[in-house]
Amino acid sequence: MIIREFRPKDLKRVYEIEKMSFSNPYDIEMLRQLFDIGTGFLVGQISDYIVGYIIFWIKDEDQGHIISLAIDNDYKRQNIGSELVKVAIDVFKKFNIKRINLEVRTQNKEAIYFYKSIGFTCEEKILNYYENGDNAFKMSFNCFDEC
Ligand SMILES: CC(C)(COP(=O)(O)OP(=O)(O)OC[C@H]1O[C@@H](n2cnc3c(N)ncnc32)[C@H](O)[C@@H]1OP(=O)(O)O)[C@@H](O)C(=O)NCCC(=O)NCCS
């Protein structure tokens, strides 16, 4: 697999993965806008086929945010999500970002186990975070924990 920067021609395929991954997916225009405003946007590709992506944002001087991450159902549990997050963490570190945050639905056990496997920890529960009233866990990762 290679990990590379998103290109506008990848949009349709990224949207396909977004739709298969989330009950309330971003629409294709929102994905385009996220790219246009300058988010970090990486895709994982195997033989010309995009199998996953990550979108992230440097919110302020020392905090970053993972906005979206999804892997094609047929390619899960092959370490692709982990590789995408690790490359994103390297980018955050280059910008001297000390802490990465994200929100995840409290019932999304798959994602919670996944982020914990990388070293994220649950910081707080946010009630009614999502439009449909679902609760979220805020999870965080300290980029320079090793020092
Ligand atoms: C969460 C997600 C991105 C994980 O991607 P992935 O490429 O399958 O994950 P990896 O193969 O890198 O998994 C790394 C580790 O995470 C944990 N993990 C991943 N999926 C898991 C699951 N379904 N159940 C339990 N643990 C899981 C395991 O410890 C796994 O290591 P192992 O396979 O050696 O046991 C993927 O399941 C996905 O796209 N989910 C739908 C979208 C989503 O919820 N995105 C995150 C919300 S922001």
Q: Can you walk through the features of this model?
A:
The protein is of the alpha+beta class and 147 residues long. It has a domain of 101 residues: Aminopeptidase, CATH 3.40.630.30. Helices cover 31% and strands 34% of the residues. The chain is built from four helices and seven strands, in the order E-H-H-E-E-E-H-E-H-E-E. A hairpin with a 4-residue loop joins strand 3 and strand 4. The chain is globular, with a radius of gyration of 15 Å. It starts with a strand and ends in a 5-residue tail after the last strand. The structure holds coenzyme A. The site of coenzyme A has 19 residues, from strand 4, helix 3 and helix 4.
What is the strand and helix layout of this fold?
Elements: E1 2-5, H1 11-21, H2 28-36, E2 40-46, E3 49-58, E4 63-71, H3 80-94, E5 99-105, H4 109-118, E6 121-126, E7 136-142
Parallel strand pairs: 4-5
Antiparallel strand pairs: 1-2, 2-3, 3-4, 5-7, 6-7
Bound molecules: coenzyme A (COA).
Q: Look at the structure and name the CATH superfamily of the domain at 2-102.
A: Gcn5-related N-acetyltransferase (GNAT)
Shape: globular
**What's the mean pLDDT score?**
96
Beta-strand proportion = 25-35%
CATH class of the domain at 2-102: Alpha Beta
Secondary-structure class: alpha+beta
Q: Could you say what the CATH architecture of the domain at 2-102 is?
A: 3-Layer(aba) Sandwich
For the sheet with most strands, the description reads:
7 strands, mixed
What binds here, in terms of ligands, is: coenzyme A
What are the segments in which pLDDT stays under 50 over at least 5 consecutive residues?
none
Strand order of the largest sheet: 1-2-3-4-5-7-6
The count of strands amounts to 7
Series of secondary-structure elements, N-terminal to C-terminal: EHHEEEHEHEE
Tell me the radius of gyration: 15 Å
